[in-house]
Amino acid sequence: MRIRTRTMSTAALLAVAALSALTACSSGDGPAFTGGDKSTPTAFPPTATVAKAKQVSPDVTLDSCAIDTATKIPEAELTVTNHGSDTATYTIKVEFVDGGGTRVAEGAAIANSVSANQRAKETAGGSAQVSSNVTCRISGVKRLAGM
Hints:
- The chain is of the alpha+beta class.
- It has one helix at 2-25; strands at residues 48-50, 60-67, 74-81, 88-97, 103-114, 119-125, 134-145.
- The chain is elongated and about 45 Å long.
- The relative contact order is 0.21.
């Protein structure tokens, strides 16, 4: 029985050591590294930028564009400002495009019942993982008055 306990303890210690080593190497704070030489990254995470395109609606602005480092899903932060005189609901479509202008993901957000002269913050999450740099741009806005 004594030998079995020691074997199980040794196996448990090895498992904890392996887990600790993996956790230490994958902090999530930067690019992944392989091998013993940590001076050369094997991959750079994709980046995201806000498009400098024409404004689709004066009521919606694109505040920021980012890619979640863990999931590789892009997302756009939006501000909706109801410049109208009545409450309105907004549906916003966002495109995430690569350097060549090809749409690689899309997203949407809904700002429900935004009162006149009020603001709402919304997030449009992408529909797919991305592996290249992307640019976010608003592709459509619908304003439904009285809702």
